[in-house]
Amino acid sequence: MRPIPHKLNKDDWGFFQVGKFKTYSKLEAIEISGKTKAKIHWNYNDQVFDAFDWTQEPPGSLDFWYGARAQQLRDTYDYIVLLYSGGADSHNMLTAFVKNNIFVDEIAQFFALDGSSNDKMSEVNKETFVTSAPNTQQLIETNPTYRHTVHRMIDGGKFQTTILLKQNPWDYWYTQANTFFCPWGQIMARLREIEPAYRALTDQGKKVCFLWAAEKLSLDLDQNKNLAIVFSECGMSSMVTPERQIKNDPGHNDEAFYWTPDMPELACKQAHVVKRYIANFSRTSVDNINVFTQDRANQVTDKKILSFPFVSNNTKYHMTTRGLHSLIYPYWDHNTVVTPKPPSPFFGSKDVWLRGSSTPDTGYTTWFPKGVVWLRDAVRKNRPDLWWEPPTVNGVYRGGMAMFSKMYKV
């Protein structure tokens, strides 16, 4: 399998275009758009993906392409840091290496004991201490291939207050994220600064890869009602921030395992697996895959409904996250303990410590009036159409301004 030319890959994670203006900051793009009245386009590897034929299903199995991607990364980097949260996406990523007996230099988890009263069973930490950390340790102890794999545990809670206090309060909104601005996201994007061992590796001349389970397959219907793959920048900037792209650190490359211009066949194969399932769909398969009719979907409270609908026999259906996992992650156990996704792009379970914080400029009452509300007003001033604000959930602010790539019919 072809290795990746070792490159500075800041553009692989997408950028914004407003006419001829290019930026990695969504807020800056919004301000330019407000002044020029030009549309904003999120360019996610357009040059590569436009030239790829998404309508042709790649040969071979999903397992083959997962293994091919793992081998491609192994052939490219001296040191791979596989960031394993324990969720379905990262578990499948790790499985791709294990099933193909491909060595991983390091498996890492980051959590927040500090700031959560050192409670390993809290919502924020349970996934790490019940799922990912035990799985990692068992792998190292029982599989000879991973006997020398480093298992690194990073308590990001120790750094949250420090990081927030160092921020210029306004630059934060321009360079530290593009959708998920929650403080915990700053830990994810700063692992190489928090952990000295990573800098030491590059000082030794090693090519280091931070490997993210980015991102879950996203499908929708295009304007002609065809099933199409679409890429969203929503979660990408919590892994690689605009600041990280601008710095373009030559010692550390961030790699997305699934959404990669170096192997578009992987995401394409996933999409065709789902497309084939839909083509053969019957009412009797609803409960097997947890796909619900539109009416029944409204009654489901414990299953997240994905964005893309499809029509079978003149009836509209939606697929759940559980259903998608069943199709594209064959080794996933749906009963695995995982941390729920944040209810808001500004506040998640790992940020609960903010509510009781009295530290200047980091407390919850400061974070919202001086930060989130400022961001909301800035967006509304420049591009009011880009701000959506549904009712709050448990008092948590849920506004946002997600953007998407071009759509590619499969």
Write up what this structure looks like.
With 410 residues, this protein is α/β, with parallel strands linked by helices. The chain has two domains: 10-271 and 332-409, no CATH class; 281-328, no CATH class. 36% of the residues lie in helices and 17% in strands. It contains 16 helices and 14 strands. The protein has a five-stranded parallel beta sheet with strand order 6-5-4-7-10, with helices on both faces. A three-stranded antiparallel beta sheet has the order 2-1-3, with helices on one face. It has a three-stranded antiparallel beta sheet with strand order 8-9-14. β12 and β13 (315-320) form a beta hairpin. α1 (26-36) packs parallel to α16, α3 packs across α4 (88-99) and α3 packs antiparallel against α12 (264-279). The longest helix is centred in the C-terminal third of the chain and has 19 residues, at 364-382. It is globular, with a radius of gyration of 21 Å. The two termini are 24 Å apart. The mean pLDDT is 86.
